[in-house]
Amino acid sequence: MTASDSFAEILLAALALPEDERAMPAGHLLDKLTPPNQKEIEAAWAAEVERRICEIDEGKVETIDGESVTQKLRSKYKMN
């Protein structure tokens, strides 16, 4: 049995799982692909999000709605 055959067999078995169980093997595989410092990366992003929320709440920055940003970019780059 080749690696390709094994992959095909595993894929077919995973696809045969009930829909609500298919994510389980994918999640386990993704866990093995994540960088070893993933927890530190997630913590840094969480701190950054919290910092930005505080800046908004304290009035230090002004938010811009997505539609305005899109219109401005389209105008700047003439994308209609």
How is the secondary structure organized here?
Elements: H1 3-15, H2 23-33, H3 38-57, H4 66-77
Description:
It is built from four helices and no strands. It is an all-alpha fold and 80 residues long. It folds into two domains: 3-33; 38-77, no CATH class. The protein starts with a helix and ends with a helix.
Helix content: over 70%
Radius of gyration: 22 Å
The biggest beta sheet reads:
none
The tally of beta strands, per DSSP, is 0
Overall morphology: elongated
Order of helices and strands: HHHH
Mean pLDDT: 91
Count of helical segments? 4
Strand content: under 5%
- Return residue spans where pLDDT drops below 50 for at least 5 consecutive residues: none
First CA to last CA: what distance?
A: 54 Å
Keywords:
single chain, 80 residues, mainly alpha, 2 domains
Offer a quick outline of the entry.
This protein has about 80 residues and is mainly α. The protein contains 4 helices and no strands.
